[in-house]
Design brief:
globular; six-stranded mixed beta sheet; 2 helices; 60s Ribosomal Protein L30, Chain: A; alpha+beta; 29% strand
Length: 126
């Protein structure tokens, strides 16, 4: 059985999907882009701010599901420009303990929804 997880503290989906789905003890979080949920506006112009907003959106969804970044077992980062990897990684690292950080891949892509520069999805387990 699956339970849909949704919160007003993260952006509403921009397509036919949900913010997250809880199946058993596993939470699958849809990719989050840097949309400020309070204003609905994109955060842009600074990859560190964009990454932080994406991670804050993920944090809000984790919180709604009763979890934290400690529960994350897998992350996927999609970037428009791999030259920004070190800046993205710097912000990302501030959300995790290096010794218990989740598995992860970072992939450069041609485009992302709303033509943002970064999108991050996660899988977490209670």
């Amino acid at each position: 059985m699956k339970k849909i997880i949704t919160t007003k503290n993260a952006p509403a989906p921009i397509g036919p999907y949900n913010q997250a789905v809880l199946s058993g003890n596993t939470l699958y979080i849809s990719g989050q882009i840097p949309i400020n949920p309070a204003t609905g506006e994109l955060v842009s112009g600074d990859i560190k701010k964009e990454t932080k907003q994406s991670l804050e959106n993920l944090k809000a969804i984790l919180t709604e599901a009763g979890m934290t970044f400690d529960n994350v077992v897998k992350s996927s980062i999609f970037v428009k420009d791999m030259h920004q990897f070190s800046e993205i990684n710097e912000v990302y690292a501030s959300y995790f303990d290096a010794d218990t950080a989740p598995a992860r891949e970072t992939v450069e892509v041609a485009n992302l929804p709303k033509f943002v520069n970064v999108e991050i999805s996660m899988i977490a387990v209670k």
